[in-house]
Amino acid sequence: QITEALLKERDKQAKWNGIPLLLQKLYEHSHPNSDFSQCQSILKEISPLLSMEAMAFVTEDRKAAQESTFPNTYTFDLFGGVDLLVEILMRPTLITQKKKQKISDDLIKDCLSILYNTCICTEGVTRRLAERNDFVLFLFTLMTNKKTFLQTATLVEDILGVKKEMIQLDDIPNLESLVSSFDQQQLANFCRILAVTISELDTGSDDKHTLLAKNAQQKKNLGPSQAEINQATLLNIPGFIERLCKLATRKVSETTGTSSFLQELEEWYTWLDNALVLDALMRVANEEAEQSSTESSDESGLANTSTRTQLPQSMKIMHEIMYKLEVLYVLCVLLMGRQRNQVHKMIAEFKLIPGLNNLFDKLIWRKHSASALILHGHNQNCDCSPDITLKIQFLRLLQSFSDHHENKYLLLNSQELNELSAISHKANIPEVDAVVNTDRSLVCDGKRGLLTRLLQVMKKEPAESSFRFWQARAVESFLRGTTSYADQMFLLKRGLLEHILYCIVDSECKSRDVLQSYFDLLGELMKFNIDAFKRFNKYINTDEKFQIFLNQINSSLVDSNMLVRCITLSLDRFENQSDAKVAEVLSECRLLSYMSQMSMRMSFLFRLINIIHVQTLTQENVSCLNTSLVILMLARRKEKLPFYLRTLQQMEYTEKYPGFILNNFHSLLRFWQQHYLNKDKDSTCLENSSCISFTYWKETVSILLSPDRTSPCAIVSYIDEAYMDIDRDFSEE
Fold this sequence. Notes:
Among the domains are: 1-61 and 68-165, Alpha Horseshoe (Leucine-rich Repeat Variant), CATH 1.25.10; 597-732. Helix 3 packs parallel to helix 7 (105-121). It is an all-alpha fold. The chain is 68% helix and 0% strand.
């Protein structure tokens, strides 16, 4: 509506670079009956003005970039450019079937490219597009076209990243045929988009949310969440999981030929800010070339051939790593979802685990030259390099794959499975059903299974490496569930116990996360296993070492309480056995002797109850409550419960603060009932990990909470009337 003369006059002063005039021309040439022929040339004029800014934004430091303004993209949006392009793109959907308009692929590409660049540089554009559901769903239909696929995918990924409510995959027109039309390369890129649609929005800080808040939330959400519905939609697409498994396990050599590969890289380069990875690769390839040239006599000739042959290979590897990352992420989320068992069955059938085992050395844990990892302004160990992210994603997949599931034995090869059987026979105990039932045609092949390979790299990991946490978690999840002597011995034989103790004691590990994962793993490895305690004593063979070990345990009971629980449970079992070997270890082992002192158990119990409160309970520290309960259940078995409660009362008096521990414990146990007696709550974990029936857990809690002040086992009997503070109800505040 503004006159051309006015626009021209203001243009120079306002530094608009002619954008408003070009938009006016575009508007005139894009009316409903136009053939769009002129539009292309107008867009060709606008495009470079915007892409320069976008490139500057991606390559500059992000912070600096946000402070500077991007006048061209801002002007383009200010004068309605964004809405106009959306209208041009969606025009064919508005016109009746008879005279379908065809927009050329190049025009679509240009529109998408300009929209993407504007989204990158101008605040709020992406959010505005995200609010237009019709446009978001329309973009998915553009993905059927190979020529515009990458541009569409990138824009969709950006839009879904800021969308407030999650998109419903069911709403995408012809989702099934869309997915089946993708080649493997496109499917991998599509996984980047899917990731946003199947992950719960706030799972990142799951451990940090208080259980009170989570329970309240669960009462509100009765049905499955949108993410869960989307997961189910994906699983119903025929062949989807099979294709993901193929993608995850294909070798680099099976990827497409170099020519189309380099051409796609070129598109990538202009598109994704992940293209920064390729800069790093260029450098690596050049360094490799220089190295080989200095080693040879005929320098110049060799350098050229070397760069030429190596560049695509190292780029191919990086490309493949970025694909696998996305695919493993999607598989991992599905493995943790509601349809877990169905996904497990498919993943086993399509041999994901043996396939990953074959890639382990060459791709997943390959030896890389230092600079391959370094991106712009990042250091080598920063978690955002693809190499590192792939390793973490891979470890997370192993963790969710083996956690409480009998398919975990697919992580071994046939010889290793035979070894498990042999351990059971030698110890004269029945074999675990899951080992007997494992389908040998689906297990790992080669010299070693995945679990053993993981142990190997774990031992070589540098002390301060961030992988240690994930490695320990993955191995621990293999041991979780009902304690298996054979599984423990399999790992003990491979020196795992000594390695963990070396990290905790000799290298005096400082990282809280790593320590916690090592304590948890140590607990699972030693629980009820007399040989493990014998090995422990052999390694921790001086008072000085034992003191360091205790200091590490005491430095944070939230991190070490699972180990304290394991020692308490094991001690109780050993004391009830009449075996000469057990008796010998009981008398010699520093750790068991320490825990058999009543004063030590009381000290742990006192501190465990003292560090948690109903208002601060989370998924991470609720284990302290369960560990304190284990100590009291074992006391109840020996009819010592009144003695323990009386001692707690005396300890309160010593601290000059009567009632503060027992009142708190009373509230915690009431919460425990609310939390664990909920019909959806899975109590088998508590049973499996402690070998104490859930009925006994429930009874013990009821007895402790009894209102009868004459009962010797009721907490209220040990709180003086004056200090009673147990009737308050807790809410989410």
